[in-house]
Amino acid sequence: MGYVKFLGTAGARFVVARQLRYSAGTWIELSGTQLLLDPGPGTLLRCRKVRPALDPGKLSGILLSHKHLDHSTDVNVMIEAMAESGRKKRGVLLAPKDALEGDDPVVLRYVRSFPERIEVLEEDRTYHVGEVEIQPVRHIHGVETYGLILNSDEGRLGFVVDTKFFPQLPQRYRGCDLLVLNVVRKEWSPDIDHLSLPEAIEIIQGVRPKLAVLTHFGMTMLRERPWELAAQISEKIGIPVIAASDGLTVEKAQWC
Question: Three-class SS of residue 172?
């Protein structure tokens, strides 16, 4: 049975630094394939502390949307844990090129021999990990960043990670049954390359998923109680919308 588990829902430097919400990644199981998206600070600890505990040794792949620290800090330890402390060559890492090359790569070279393979994310390519097909969506952010669409026989899931809004976004995620959106700010700001709540609503209305989940909150969202905002959006647009909380599990039945 497929599910998405939010190990953490923090989405801005202040929220992460103060750990007002956990900053761990998102664990996904689809068609028996277990994946981890964006292992930020504390991901390994959260895997062990949630109940039931999650075993990194069962991961088939780690998906890194971009190299900013709130998304990538635990990527190396999670690669090592996926490969059972390096004793087994297993799993797949998908990551942007600038997370692996250049002046500031975040994936350490000594762990790169642990996965079965490492693939560089590029738009208009399709990747396969276990029983899941993965399609990257290029976003507009401070570094090379990709949202991800995961296709399996348990549904089509879209993860709209950090990005500045652009008009093509709703079209790129069209057809998703579950749509997860990183919403850092309640109000729009021209200087921030993150989605605001009004922009997230526009995307949800364009995609019309069976369920939308808001996550990755900054202070302006937390102050306004995102669960209440989500309920108001649901009533206004007629599409189920919920706000993620640390440890929330969304089951397949909720997006089917």
Answer: helix
Taking the CA atoms of residue 191, residue 192, residue 198 and residue 203 in that order, the dihedral angle to the nearest 10 degrees is 120
Confidence check: pLDDT of 192 > 90: no
Task: Please indicate, yes or no, whether the overall pTM of this predicted structure exceeds 0.85.
Answer: yes
Q: Any long-range contacts for 16-24 (C-beta under 8 Å, 24+ apart)?
A: 16/40, 16/41, 16/70, 20/219, 20/222, 21/217, 21/222, 21/246, 22/46, 22/246, 23/70, 23/73, 24/74
**Of 246, 216, 181, whose CA–CA distance to 46 is shortest?**
246
Cβ atoms of residues 182 and 38 within 8 Å:
no
Instruction: Write down the pLDDT at residue 87.
Output: 83
Candidates 62, 69, 65; CA nearest to 27 is: 62
User: Are the C-beta atoms of residues 95 and 105 closer than 8 Å to each other?
Assistant: no
Q: Look over the chain and give the mean of its residue pLDDT values, rounded to a whole number.
A: 96
CA distances from 99 to 67, 73, 172 (A): 5, 11, 23
Read off the pLDDT band of 91 (50, 70, 90).
very high
**CA of 151: how far to CAs of 38, 82, 135, 156, 212, in Å?**
18, 22, 8, 5, 16
Fold (CATH) for 3-254: Metallo-beta-lactamase; Chain A (3.60.15)
Question: Are residues 154 and 132 in contact, defined by beta-carbon separation less than 8 angstroms?
Answer: no
Q: Percent of the chain at pLDDT above 90?
A: 94
Please give the Cα distance from 156 to 152 (Å, whole number): 6
Average pLDDT over residues 103-110: 95
**CA distance between the termini of the chain:** 12
Q: What percent of the chain has a predicted confidence (pLDDT) above 70?
A: 100
Task: Please name the residues in contact with 87: beta carbons below 8 A apart, sequence gap of 6 or more.
Answer: none
